[in-house]
User: What shape does this take?
Amino acid sequence: MAGGYCMVCKKICKWDRHRNAQYIIVTEKQVQLVDSEGVLKTWNKANNSHEGALIGATDKYLSLQEELRTEIINLVELSEELTKTALLHDLSGLINYLETLYKAAKAQGASSGHLAQLATAINSLILVRELSSRLPILQTKTTNISCAKSCMVE
Assistant: This one.
């Protein structure tokens, strides 16, 4: 900080805008120029064709999407475990965390499929939170979290 202004961010904002931030997300864009032969070597493992490179890149993308879905389901399972051990557990913390992930992914230029999965997870948890507040107290919140998990699997 210098003279009440932040020296970390590029906009040199007023310090009070950042003073309570626990972290700052910094995005960096990297450009690498590669000719078509370099692309084929990087992505194609089969037959050195453009189609093979496209298939390789698509496979990598799909595996990353599957990994993201699995991690979101793991978060829900951890939240379910927390519900069993903690009193008055609220899904707001998990929703806030996923919203932060969504904002960071959007700032980093994530694909629309990645953003759609995060948005689906957020909306599912919001729906579960609203349902749990409207349903009778006799129904356990664990059942509601299981519902969110099944919504994300689809």
Remarks:
- Residues 50-85 form the longest helix (36 residues).
- The helical segments are 36-43, 50-85, 92-107, 112-134, 141-153.
